From TrEMBL:
Residues 741-852 form the Response regulatory domain. This is histidine kinase. The keyword Cytoplasm does not apply. It comes from Thalassobaculum litoreum DSM 18839. Residues 147-305 form the Phytochrome chromophore attachment site domain. It comes from the Bacteria.
Length: 855
């Protein structure tokens, strides 16, 4: 019984678009397949079952699945089948032991096609690793960029970090089904495909339909033999098994040859589906075979689905801005034409307003038989020749083309000054238009190789041979204008509605009908205003939920949250640097002020006795001091050059502590109109967390705050000289700290991605991200490394071997740790800087400056 295929079957090139890629009759090598009928009789299996479970196809075919798998596996599979919603749904099970006599766990995918249930089994290769835990931080990361391109770059980085592929690209489809690589992350020595276009023939239409149904596709090894499905056809239907949703589905020989021509050994694609349409792909390439675990693929697929929602949200935001622009244009047009003045009389002003929201090189108004023009436009005679075409194409709707010459009927020539036009009909009763014109923009398209395929002879049969070259191939395009964007079309449609339903009615309707026209206008305006108010309410609701306590910009909110996190970090530095011992209140105050008050004279006066706070009181106290300090810098005494702060700490008779915060020399203060999160921290942290009291007073001299902390949180009072704020003030980091290649050893994916951005911001040319010691040692062996940034603790091991190898090679390195200066690594390498988590980019830059000898 034949089970493996080394040579692909012959292909009729005329059948390329109709190739049944959903019915290859084979599966890839990294798992096996069992198909069962509604009564759970095994009807088809892949030929490699014996490799995985010791049962050959002839042992399984015709058997009841209940008699093959153990009871627990059957129970789990039946339970999960209840969750199958339709034939486009796939359910997953992880780490299932399917045979009692086989000490091996499998991941299982199951779905239904017709009357057949398909079960796919892959050996579980993950050691208790939850890849899905990475998805939410990855999504948070790609949500931050403002533009689609920046979000796609961030997504490519995240997928590469999660999957380990050599190259990850985001590939976007154009209207003509060609595609373009708009984001790319790859090895520094690899040839870049960024910006290259791929013809529609590279991904046939049936493949694009498949991408819509099955949003993740992997090819683990293009040279590995595949296993055939036995029998070839379903006994009940007489058709090959439909593997559209199969994760093991074998790949078209044409596609395998295509990958081979690119030098790719393994690939994976994740569909980006927006509003039911295929927007693009996250395409992954690897230069050697790569079997990615089912759990990792599932997490990547989930990320792709959520990333599509983020892109859709950004598109909705753009649409919202378009509506705002259209509303502003509507209001402006209304102001111009409210008196009943015609478009022809005010065309110059109207053209100026329209061109501000829809860029163009010229504009023609053809209303009431009157020709008006602004900018680079055809003559009235040339426009007259175009009017029949415009009337047929733009009858009651917007018509746009960026290639006018290619769409005009025979015998009609495009004016020399026009390559593209956007026609807006402005009347229902006559052939009146406003036409926006764009001139030719000669452009060069960079294709990934000449977009053709060839038919070759092999083994006596004709075969379709994919392109063999992917080097950049340029095509110069003439006679076309810049594309009219979706935003242009949406704005034009809003303008059409305004002009046809409101403006022209006021200029065309007789005086006797003007009252009725005004009523219709008011109804339309009321409806538009109602919709705009709804939009504003939605935006306001989203913002209030996202930043329930804050205000300001996203950047400001990020800085505020980051400042609070760093305040906690500074506080915990004090209690952890010496065996989790009590922390000095005075040092908390001085450290906080040093971080935010800038250089210059000290403006903090410490009075009384220093208090030693127990560790469980430090975080609350530190946050209060942080909020008081930042509030003083923004609004209080430290906002004025002559202002200062006095902090008096006094021990109470019951062993507790009283802290008096006094601001002087600043501007007048008053209670805030709104109680924000910062004010809540000041007033509620100590009472809520420590059971103490807080009193806040706004007096003429400045803010006064009295805080009492119970005795159970105070280790004692000490007579020590007050510290200087200046001794805790860090020098500003240089703008560019380093250059060259950096080895980043960090086992937490999110921290690694954030650290990579920081390292690039301070000058790193390339960052090698490694999560394990063996991976880092391989990079050191094969690459030139200029600096090392090493996380000390890596789960059940540490960075010692990597530090020793870098030290042996004379490569400077630093440690990143949550254990502070007392890390054992610091004792072994006393000259290596130690950066404590969490850290900001400024602290990393200072540490690297020391490392590179610039500090």
């Amino acid at each position: 019984m034949s089970s493996l295929s080394e040579t692909p079957p012959a292909i009729d090139p005329s059948e390329c678009e109709r190739e049944p890629i959903h019915q290859p009759g084979r599966v890839q090598f990294f798992g096996f397949l069992i198909a069962v009928s509604p009564d759970w009789t095994i009807t088809q299996v892949s030929a490699n079952t014996g490799t995985y479970i010791g049962l050959e196809p002839e042992d399984l075919l015709g058997s009841d699945l209940n008699s093959v798998l153990n009871r627990e596996a059957i129970h789990n599979i039946r339970t999960r089948m209840q969750m199958l919603q339709d034939e486009d749904t796939v359910e997953r099970l992880f780490r299932i032991r399917i045979l009692d006599n086989l000490n091996r766990e499998f991941d299982i995918a199951l779905h239904v096609t017709g009357q057949t249930t398909i079960l796919e089994f892959e050996p579980n290769s993950d050691v208790q690793q939850d890849y899905t835990a990475y998805v939410q931080p990855m999504i948070n990361r790609v949500s931050k960029p403002e533009t689609v391109k920046e979000a796609c770059v961030s997504a490519a980085k995240a997928v590469r970090a999660l999957t380990g592929f050599d190259r990850v690209m985001v590939y976007r489809f154009h209207d003509d089904d060609s595609g373009e690589v708009i984001a790319e992350v790859c090895n520094p020595d690899a040839e870049s495909y960024l910006g290259l276009r791929y013809p529609a023939s590279d991904i046939p239409s049936q493949a694009r339909r498949m991408y819509l149904r099955s949003t993740l596709r992997i090819v683990s090894d293009i040279q590995a033999p595949t296993a055939e499905i036995l029998p070839e056809k379903d006994p009940s239907t007489g058709e090959p098994l439909d593997l559209s949703l199969s994760s093991l589905r074998a790949v078209s020989p044409v596609h395998l040859e295509y990958l081979a021509n690119m030098g790719v050994q393994a690939s994976m694609s994740v569909s980006i589906v927006m509003r039911g349409k295929l927007w693009g792909l996250i395409a992954c390439h690897h230069n050697s075979p790569r079997v990615l675990s089912f759990q990792a693929r599932s997490a990547t697929q989930m990320f792709g689905q959520l990333f599509a929602l983020i892109l859709e949200k950004k598109d909705n935001e753009i649409s919202s801005l378009d509506r705002e622009r259209a509303q502003a244009l509507h209001d402006g047009l209304m102001a111009r034409l409210a008196t009943g003045s015609s478009i022809a009389r005010q065309f110059q002003d109207l053209a100026d307003m329209i061109s501000q929201v829809i860029p163009c090189d010229g504009m023609i108004g053809w209303t009431e038989g009157v020709y008006n023009a602004v900018g680079e436009v055809p003559s009235q005679e040339e426009l007259t020749d175009l009017l029949p075409f415009l009337s047929s194409m733009a009858s009651g709707r917007i018509y746009a083309t960026h290639d006018l010459a290619s769409v005009l009927p025979e015998g009609v020539s495009a004016p020399a000054s026009v390559a593209g036009l956007l026609a807006i009909p402005v009347s229902r009763s006559s052939r009146d238009f406003i036409v926006l014109m764009r001139r030719e923009i000669g452009k060069t398209i960079e294709w990934a190789g000449a977009p053709d395929k060839a038919v070759t002879k092999r083994d006596g049969a004709e075969r379709l041979s994919p392109r063999t070259s992917f080097a950049a191939w340029q095509e110069v395009v003439r006679g076309q204008s810049a594309l009219w964007t979706d935003s242009d079309i949406r704005t034009a449609e809003s303008l059409r509605v305004t002009l046809t339903e409101v403006i022209l009615k006021m200029s065309e309707t007789a005086l006797a009908e003007r009252t009725a026209a005004n009523e219709r206008q008011e109804i339309l305006i009321a409806e538009l205003n109602h919709r705009v108010r709804n939009i504003f309410n939605v935006i306001r609701g989203i913002w209030s939920q996202s930043s329930a306590s804050g205000g300001g910009t996203v950047t400001g909110l990020t800085e505020t949250v980051g400042g609070r996190i760093q305040a906690l970090a500074r506080a915990y530095d004090q209690v952890t640097e010496v065996d989790w011992r009590p922390a000095s209140l005075w040092r908390l105050c001085a450290t906080e002020l040093a971080a935010y008050s800038g250089s210059g004279r000290d403006r903090l006066e410490l009075r009384g006795q220093d208090a030693l706070l127990l560790p469980n009181a430090v975080s609350a106290t530190s946050l209060v001091m942080h909020e008081l300090t930042t509030n003083s810098i923004k609004y209080g005494s430290l906002s004025a050059p002559s202002g200062w702060i006095t902090v008096t700490s006094t021990g109470n008779t019951d062993g507790g502590l009283t802290i008096e915060w006094r601001e002087q020399g600043g501007p007048p203060v008053s209670p805030p109109e709104r109680i924000g999160f910062g004010t809540t921290i000041i007033e509620q942290s100590v009472p809520h967390e420590l059971g103490g009291t807080t009193a806040v007073r706004f007096v003429a001299d400045g803010l006064e705050v009295d805080i009492t902390i119970p005795a159970r949180f105070v280790a004692g009072m000490v007579n020590t000289p007050p510290p200087s704020v200046g001794q805790f003030r860090e020098a500003p980091p240089p703008k560019q700290t380093i250059s060259g290649s950096v080895l980043l050893l960090e086992d937490n994916l999110i921290i690694a991605l954030a650290s990579e951005d920081m390292l690039r911001n301070v000058g790193a040319d390339h960052v090698w991200i490694c999560s394990t010691v063996p991976q880092a040692l391989r990079v050191i062996e094969t690459s030139d490394i200029d600096f090392g940034v090493l996380d000390v603790n890596l789960g059940d091991t540490n960075a010692g071997d990597v530090a020793r190898e870098l030290s042996r090679r004379g490569v400077p390195f630093m440690f990143v740790t949550g254990y502070g200066e007392r890390s054992p690594m610091k004792q072994a390498y006393p000259n290596a800087p130690v950066l404590q988590k969490p850290f900001a980019e400024e602290r990393l830059a200072l540490a690297l400056a020391t490392l590179s000898g610039q500090g």
